[in-house]
Amino acid sequence: MSAIAALGRLRAAATGVAQPAATVRHRHLSAGPLVLVPYVLAGEAFAPLAVLVGTDRDRPHLLAVPQPRDRDRRFAHAAELGRLLLPYLGAFAAETETIERRSEDPYERSLDAPQVLVPTAGGVEYLRLLGRSTRFRRTDGEFAVAQEVPLLGRWSTWLADRAGVPGSSVLLAMTDLLTQAWVTGQSALEDGDLAALLAWIDPPAGQRGDRAARAVEGGPTAGPATDPAFDERLVPLIAAFDDAVAAERDEAAERDEADAAGGARTDLGPRGRDAEQAIRDALAAELLPTWDRVWRGVELLRALPSGASVAGRWEADRASYSFFAAALADPESRPQPRVPGAISAAAQLAGRERAQARLDAEQVRDDPLLMAAVRLAGEAFRGELGAVDAERMVAEPGKKTARPRPMLTFATDDEPLFGPGTDLACVERPDAKARVLATEPGRVVLELRGGMGGGKAPKPGSVPEVGEVLCWTSLIAEFRRGPDWPDVEDTPWTHGGPPPVPEPEAAPEADDDALEDWS
Amino acid sequence: MTAVATVRPEGDPAALAAAATDAVLADLASGAHRGVVVDSPPGAGKSTLVVRAAGELARGGERLMIVAQTNNQVDDLLVRLVEEHPGLAVGRLSATGYRLPPALVGSSVSNAEKAEALDACVVVVATAAKWALVQDRRWPWAIVDEAYQMRSDALLLVARLFDRALFVGDPGQLDPFATVDTSRWHSLSYDPSQSAVVVLRRHNPDLPVHRLPVSWRLPASAAPLVSEAFYPFTPFRSGTGPGERLLHFGAAVEHDAYDAAVDVAAKSGWGLLELPARFTAAADEEAVRAVATLAARLLARGGTTIGERTPDGVPLDASRIAIGVSHREQRARIESALRDLGAADVVVDTANRLQGREFDVTVVLHPLSGRRDATEFHLETGRLCVLASRHRHACLVVARAGIPDLLDAHPTADPVHLGVPVSFPDGWEANQAVLAELARHRVALPG
Amino acid sequence: MRTTGTTGAIAGRLEQLRGTLPTRNHNARTVAALAANPGCARRGVLDAAGIEKTVLADRLGFPARYGGRSPFAIGRGNVFEARVKADGGTELRRLLAETLGAHPDAGALIDVDHESAGRPSREERVARTRDALARAARGEPDACAILDHPLLPLDVAGRRAYLEPDAMACRVAGRLYVVEIKSFAIIDGSADPGKLASATRQAAVYVHALRRLAAELGLDPDVVATDIVLVCAQDFSNRPVAVVLDVRRELATTRRRLERLSGVEELLGELPETLTFDVDGELVGAAVARVPAAYVPDCLSACELALFCRDEARGCAPGGGSVGTLGTSVRGALGGIEDIADALALADGRRAARPGEEDVARLLRRAQALRAEVLGAAEPGSRAPGTEVPLSEVSGGVR
User: Fold this and answer.
1) pLDDT at A258 over 70
2) For the segment C331-362, what is each residue's pLDDT rounded down to a tens digit?
3) pTM of the model
4) CA of B283 to nearest chain C CA: how many angstroms apart?
5) Which among C39, C246, C249 has CB closest to B409?
6) Do A10 and C344 touch (CB under 8 A)?
7) Which residues pair with C179 in a beta bridge?
8) Using the 8-state DSSP alphabet, how is residue B424 labeled?
9) E strand segments, A395-499
């Protein structure tokens, strides 16, 4: 950890007031995000218990599953969630702009994209598992589910996959957003608790952050895993619900055997609805504090200016959204595979590493506080230009003609550790490229090598002037194109050879889950 | 301790090594396997094997491509190839702007940016990154050098270029790394973040795996420790016996701890210069100065190395000494300290970048020196292995006291992933073994 | 290897520390947890004395939050284990054959916990386990193939602990395998790394105990495999799936930690002769405080006493406290500076660097200068976040 960041934590601990971790917000924040606060049942691989969801802080929708182990109720829940989410997720696909590309056909990119906010990183995993457990479900046959279910599965999978791409903003955890912006006087581990984190950043008036954080510890958890103590309270409520459902079914069978088979298995009578309401009330009380905290976090983050390169990264999200929405609209398209093949896995890793490099370089350029840590580590310096030799011409080894290579001498208090020959980029002059000629205490000498136009003399204004204060860094984002991966059918023998081609007529993937009983 | 089933190879090292090499070449010549894997401990003649195998394959009339991981490795291989096989048509595929190093200027190596220009060459050498850009060419054979340092996604990009391949590398060094979290791919047999050899063998479990049994680099003082600490299941021995490698120095300069450490290392092949226990930030100026001073003292003492190839002795100049560290910041600070001491020619580098390199004497800043808490990075077995196995004569370690306590207090809570082979021994055990040896060659540097 | 025996004097000291406090019997989970913070003397002493830390935490006024399990999870775990072992272990045999490549011999599944005349005592179960093991290892024809609910004795710092593996495959190609049954899911070939790690550590404790037992029986310890079979739920179903895990690393760790626990006499040597934790009210905090702790935030998920230790480490005076409470990465960036206020005094130039602190002082002052340059001079104590906005009514939309 950088001493800059460590110092922020120390200061926060000493004063009881959270300190800035950044001077700008490094993620896109949508004008109308969708907030999703999920709970799942403990002990199960993935059994949704409840969600609070919505785009309006004052109108959260509570969806609850009174018996999460009941498969029919689980998929009814997924369908209901789909009916809420799908209109939002699809709404941005209609309005697009045409983007020209150098060597490929132009494409349509949506002007905006959905943004889903969850309380913690657990929410991202929730969407991944939601996607995995629903996208392969069939809408016909013995275990048919509503058409929203597999669609929701494919969207959830896209969101969760995209969340793994560094710098993406379509699915974000509030704890991550807040810890990027502020540093507290507790540990990073404790910052994972949204309640304590927000209490530090935004304590009640007149209270220190440390006191406020301690006061909320042990309260309702932000999920998706529930508090075991809450589960103890839930056990009798679910048992009561099961009893009510069984009793009503018996009564119905007695009353009218013919009608009993008519209604859906998830339909409830008055007793069942009362039992369900008791469960919903308990869940609402547990989930609402987190709902409020996520929206409070949105307010706090909105007050921060957005980093200069945030819009550029959001463009990549919009493009990804448009490609996915187009693929989804194609009736021939298939859900994302369970696991990626060798080629896709390699392409994913390479893509994420490129995104990470881009993010690292852009964030420090956008944010002097992050750049301060780079300067402290000796990988950047900020200084005043004291002397310029604008006429300097140098013939590179192996080249006949001399090119303009102005020499710039900076005075700085920073202690860069790079040696002669290191290539540098400039924060204030993004086009300028320079190479280090010499560093000595208090002084750095650079040779300007790029951003001067192709002429025999530097183009006007391209050479910095004496007195300019500039920041130079060796962290340079190289926007390299990804490699050309082989086609799937050319997967080499070293990696198992081409995977067996999925036959279009093949039997649907086994519905493991549907064949199981759940109690 | 789990019983080690294998025993260190015994017998004439030259004969052992020759038998291993012959077995590899026989497997290649048989044509019975799509791939052959050779595990090579530090300095076991990996390059020699690559150069010989290239010669044998070329003699058999096969064209072949050689994949190395860095430009330096490509150049080193080329130098060896033209030395051993002067008549061979050898090509180097290079990126724009690459210039042949002095040792290759005027040699028979053809340098080109496009594979088409090298179609007349029997052997073409390039980095994996460069090979990834080649289209529409195919070679009956490839040799992949430093294959354990290569990520499997890099192999995926070049495997389409060859029918069969010899994979050579050192399994004990640092695993390849990625800059993002890779856990989501760990359960895949073709995990792109795993090393090329691990993925290759998962998909081709029947490929023959050979081991080179003799380290020609490590002296008799180092091979047993490195073998036991880092290669417990695949032991090797040194090519030279006790007393065959000698290190002499002139008279002591200051008669201080530095001189004492130099003398201890000259006699035993190991030295530990121990600074007083203290927790420090990453850049420990005192340790930085100690490392630089120790390297400068090695030079000032006018050392001579005598070995099986140099019975008359060779002066220990700056080009034969290297300093190994863990962080770039340490490297930069030590370089600056060396400049102040007039010893700027000594190579300083991180463990990552010292992989595959060899020196007469090394000075190592211990990865755990001065640390408040051990981290996975600093405990990594491969890092210590690289640092402790670069030398032909002696290795001097600079460390703050207290590392055993640090190891003792280290919590163990490593996450476990399905399908990921367990690296064994873990960093804890390897560190203990090395520290136990170093403790026998300790010189205290007063604060 | 040192012996794990504890001399009478040490046993006496430990008993005195414990007094009438309830004891906790070690199990695989608690033995595995010994590796969580081995540098903590407080934990070392309490574990050696076998004190039930949950009770101590209550008495200290910091009830433990760690360790609770949901009734839903417990229920699911029991149902799943029963299912795996049902019908004489048919399913388990299939899984063992799949993963180990060899069928367990056609012998029976024997439940060590079966009731003949009432529930068997612990010693009875241990005896049955030893007997079954010895017979299986000797290859007796009617030996069992799978041992259910075996009970393994293990001495932990001189106290006898009883470990209860889920099951053991007794004869697969002449070797014994520990079987661990967990109800968490393996989805598309991967599982939660944290849950896997804790299952692996627990299984390693069983392997360790089993190898000692084998040695006691005069068998080669290597008859116990260092690979274990982990049975989990497959994908989202209740269907079991098994994987083989290599636990050699965890086994080495377990061995190291148990050895260290037997070194408790060094820790006791530093404590007052008359110290006991069995005291009332305010005194108990003072008594516990006599044993130094090494609190780090990770303790919150590994030790019942963590909340007490955290409070202690944060200190009573606002603005003070140990840098370790902020996490090991913060601590690592500060060299050896231990106190928060002290580190800030150094950064702000309010105190001079002591010998040996020069590097850290320079670093902190440089960092402070850079922070001030970027954030403005008003930074220390300035209020960062946005404006105060009253929380609006939110419950209206529910339902």
Assistant:
1) no
2) 999 988 999 999 999 999 999 999 888 999 99
3) 0.92
4) 8
5) C39
6) yes
7) C167, C229
8) S
9) 403-404, 407-411, 423-426, 433-440, 443-450, 469-473
